[in-house]
Amino acid sequence: MPTPLAFSVAIGLIIYLAILKPTEVSKQAWRLFAIFFTTIAGLILGPLPIGAWAFVCLMITVITKTLKIKDALSGFTNDIIWLIVLSFFFSRGFLKIVLGDRLAMYFVKWFGKSTLGLAYGLAIGEAIILPAMPSATARAGGIFLPVINSLAIASGSSPNDGSARKLGTYLIESQLQVHGLFKFEFNNIRIIKSPTDYPIYCWN
């Protein structure tokens, strides 16, 4: 058995078999706790690719009857999770068909008179996309990172050769600040709307 796999499995077995279970915790919950630690250990040590390891651990929870299959798969119905997954599919597609480079050239054409213009163009894009794609991970990884990377490389700025500060660092930092600004503004709107959607009841 390879060392990372052995360590990952051993951690879960030690927690489940060697550590005394608190009386308040059910046997099923303790088993789930051990599987959770095995999952985390495997994600860190990497006996398998992340997706494969997560799927194996998910299967274990079902096979050992720790969770019902309906409960084990309930996370896959989360809209935000699928939005993030699809955004990274889009990101890979950007790289495959060089769409990121094409969009970058349009950004240069429209806003490329200065680095400040490029930053403003990306900020406008963030404002337009945010209502339709509320996940920050989806927007950053699936849309803006490929475009910023293409803009930086086209300008001779790469994170691998010490030239990142020419343009890449500036665009990343400006986009980070813009993201924070728009995210909090959007959350303020949600907070104002939330009392009507999710009323809070108080009892004396």
TrEMBL record:
<dbReference type="GO" id="GO:0015131">
    <property type="term" value="F:oxaloacetate transmembrane transporter activity"/>
</dbReference>
<feature type="transmembrane region" description="Helical">
    <location>
        <begin position="110"/>
        <end position="130"/>
    </location>
</feature>
<keyword id="KW-0472">Membrane</keyword>
<dbReference type="Pfam" id="PF00939">
    <property type="entry name" value="Na_sulph_symp"/>
</dbReference>
<keyword id="KW-1133">Transmembrane helix</keyword>
<protein>
    <submittedName>
        <fullName>Solute carrier family 13</fullName>
    </submittedName>
</protein>
<dbReference type="GO" id="GO:0015140">
    <property type="term" value="F:malate transmembrane transporter activity"/>
</dbReference>
<keyword id="KW-0934">Plastid</keyword>
<comment type="similarity">
    <text>Belongs to the SLC13A/DASS transporter (TC 2.A.47) family. DIT1 subfamily.</text>
</comment>
<keyword id="KW-1001">Plastid inner membrane</keyword>
<feature type="transmembrane region" description="Helical">
    <location>
        <begin position="72"/>
        <end position="90"/>
    </location>
</feature>
<keyword id="KW-0812">Transmembrane</keyword>
<dbReference type="GO" id="GO:0005313">
    <property type="term" value="F:L-glutamate transmembrane transporter activity"/>
</dbReference>
<dbReference type="GO" id="GO:0009706">
    <property type="term" value="C:chloroplast inner membrane"/>
</dbReference>
<feature type="transmembrane region" description="Helical">
    <location>
        <begin position="30"/>
        <end position="60"/>
    </location>
</feature>
<dbReference type="InterPro" id="IPR030676">
    <property type="entry name" value="CitT-rel"/>
</dbReference>
<dbReference type="InterPro" id="IPR001898">
    <property type="entry name" value="SLC13A/DASS"/>
</dbReference>
<dbReference type="GO" id="GO:0009941">
    <property type="term" value="C:chloroplast envelope"/>
</dbReference>
